[in-house]
Amino acid sequence: MGLLEIRSRRHATDIIVNIAKELDLTLPPASGSATLPRNWQDIADFRLFISHISQHKDKATRLKRCLHPYAIDGFVAHEDIYPTLEWQQEIERALYAMNAFLAIHTPGFSQSVWTQQEIGFAVARGVKIISLKMGEDPTGFISKHQALPRRSRTAEQIAQEIDAILTTDESTREKLEAAKKIKGLIASDDAIPF
After folding, report:
1. Per DSSP, what are the bridge partners of residue 102?
2. Domains of the chain
3. Is the pTM of this model over 0.85?
C-alpha cells in the first residue's frame, strides 16, 4: 500500500467520522477511534491484537514474528509501545484498530485484570477471537468457543494454523486476503495478463 492510498483511507475515515457526528451517532472515544498505535501506522497488514501476561511476553513476541510472513502484524504491548508514548492509550488504540484478537492462555492469564479487560473489549467490538491454550483454559465469555491447543507444536506451526483460521473465517477473510495481495502473497486479479 502506498503512502497516497494510506492518506486516502485516513481522509475517508475523517469523512465518515464527520457524517456520524452530523447524525448524532455515538462514536468510540477519540483516543482510539481515528488514531492507530504507532506500530500499525503506515502498514497494510492484517492487525491482530495479541493478549498475554507480562511473564510470557517472549511467547507473544515469538508468535508475532512467526505471523509476519502471513501479512499478519501482531500488537504485543510489551514490544510495540514506543518509548515516551502513553502505554495505556496505545493499548486502547490497538484494541480499537484490531481486525482480530488472540488470547494466549498461559497460567495466570485469567487472573490478570488487564487481559480480562482486553477480552471484554474484543467481545464488545465483536471481532474474531482466537484462544490459544498454553496451560490454562479460557474462562468467562470466550470459554464457549473451542480453544486452539498448543500441544507440542512450534510457534511456526501455530502461526500457520492461525492464518488458516483467519483465512477461512467470514469476518476476517476479506481483510486478510487484501493484506496478502498488497504484500504480493496472493496474486491480484489485476495481475492476470489476460
Report:
1. 50, 130
2. 35-183 (3.40.50.10140)
3. no
